[in-house]
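Instructor's aside before we start: the two examples that follow are unrelated to each other. I chose them only because their records fit on one page, so don't look for a connection. First example below.
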Amino acid sequence: MTNEEILQATKLFLLDLDGTVYLGDRIIGEMDQTLHTLREMGKRIVFLTNNSSRTRAAYEEKLKLLHLFEEGDGVYTSAMAMAEYLRTNHTGERAYIVATAAVEEEIRRSGIPAPLPGRQPDLCVLAYDTELTFEKLRLLDRYMKERVPLYVTHPDDVCPTPYGSMPDVGSFLALLRRSSGQEPELVLGKPFPHMGKCLARETGIPMGEMCMVGDRLHTDIRFANNCKMHSVLVLSGEAKMGDVSRFTDCPDLILPDFNRILD
């Protein structure tokens, strides 16, 4: 597809964050102006991230500081998708949650109760906990061995930073698989289609009229393909042009960065 065809076919752009609209605390090119122009064209924008270490409010605050967030935009994280999934499918069940304090509070506010003192939880949740302690891992390992089902926010092995990658949820899960001998009940986040279905319900826009923009073939572009969305791969983050032939995940359009969508 061409730039013009993507623009004509898309009502809602789903934008990955690091590597797509910013790198660390620096926006990519004139991304603020690019997004403003898209809004003026009547396009809706949702910032969609697997990173479940921060709340929606924290992401909105950062995006506002970078002049990337305006009224009418949205933020959706894998932790929010997890809360929606549990609220819909496990009403009233008590969860042991391994997450940052702020993200745990966000999930609890959606109606997911904590385990009773001294009682085994009904299920466990593993998010990207940048406040992880050995005690949290020990308890999660114990509950997995006791066959308490584990729900994981997303599968990423590493999280990019300006100084190199850091261990992410997928790496935590690899450790727990080895120690407990058990597998998770469910993994959400990109590339799995659950977040796309959530956004379609929330926005009223069919997934076929959405476009996923991201810098990872195996998460962003695979997510778009799994959801039957349009997709734009940007080369401003992780993926390089040479990677495209190594993956079966085919984007509709490849750009050096998302600012070029308006060329």
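Example two begins here.
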Amino acid sequence: MLKLRVLFACLCLPLLGGCAGSSLFVSYPSQMAPVRQALDSQKPATTLPTLQAGLEGQDALLYAQEAGRVAQISGDFRVSEQYYRQAIADYQTQDNKAVISASDIGAKTSGILLNDNAIPYQGPAFERIMLHQYQALNFLFTKDYEAALVEVRRTNELQAQEQKRFESKSAVQDIENGQVAAEMRRLGQVAGNLDNAFLNAYSYYVTGLIYELLGQPNDAFIDYRKAVRLSPGNPYLQQTLVRLAKTLQMPQYQEFKQRWGDTNATPKTNGQLILLLERGLVPEKQSFTVPFTIDGYWQRVTLPTYVGRPPQVLPATVTGAGKPRQTAPIANLDAMAINALRQQMPAILLRQAARVAAKAKMNQQAGGKHNQNQDNVGAVAVQLFNLVSEQADRRSWLTLPQQAQIASESLPAGSYPIRLDSSPAHQVTIEAGKTTLVWAIDTGNLIRFYSIII
């Protein structure tokens, strides 16, 4: 019985010490609910002190991403840049760890005995790629063009690395447990059976756009081609590729023209309007439980999942700048998040198997024959501890958009009151021979506009 008490003391210390600001017992989505609600208010940055408090914990990387995104949505690109710098540094630290530190051992031991929320957060590949894309936009909107190009190159490098890693692996593993396997199949259907969870047409379009805006059209052409492969039905992408192939006299121009039609010559008095529109928020992870017994003792496995994709996002009607036109979707980040979880599920289940084995051993030790009454109490206590401590890891970057859309138009120089559907007008200026980039972020009941002329 003494050994059991010592074991409980070892388990409870990390529980008691890690409750504040952690997801051990309070799910991450519920902690982030006030932050997501504030995004639809006039002052979303009021939640930054709450997020700042999480920058010292084991989920610092995740909180830095969230804080950077909140500041960015608020229009404070320089503050966002600082938070993103910390998140990028945290990813780099993960990359550079050649040996397991004592803190890692402690976290993984707690994770085996408690739940995956005790393991420091490591973002999926698509979150890391979006981080560098957003940092590039921060630098672009603060006119630090050289830094923007550095982030663009890093975004491309990450996508190439993840592509190689993905190609070197086999398909998502089958799982023997029938209920879990069925859930994985359902996630694949909900996500639209994406081939991967990291290649992102929105990121390729943004990196291509920044390359083109900053005078590197050949690099832009490469990224636009990658984007159109991932989002082949987007008419704005198609016309962008035709236009640039024509300008650069690329051999693919004739092929593109036959597939998508030619582009009209742009008058020298015109400028280009490009709209990036982000709508909604990515869904929150939910959980499902698989109960079973080992040696007569009840155990349960609680795994993260997505109940389903949010309601379909509709294109926006753009008015006030030339003829009315509709935006076109370029990437569904909700589908990427769902598919990322599906691909992570085998590793999650391996950890769960180790946890179940450890808990079963605790039950066996608590159910010995030295003192029947004490041992019965100990066995019940361990079972209760197991049931309470088993929580799914529902952490993810929750301030990302659900979907990205784009639109573009050549317009005579002048001032235009742009509206998206029934939104208030956002006044933009078009200058001859230049590009006006408008970044609109729709969080549900509020659309924020940010624009720059390059």
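The two ends are 72 Å apart (CA to CA).
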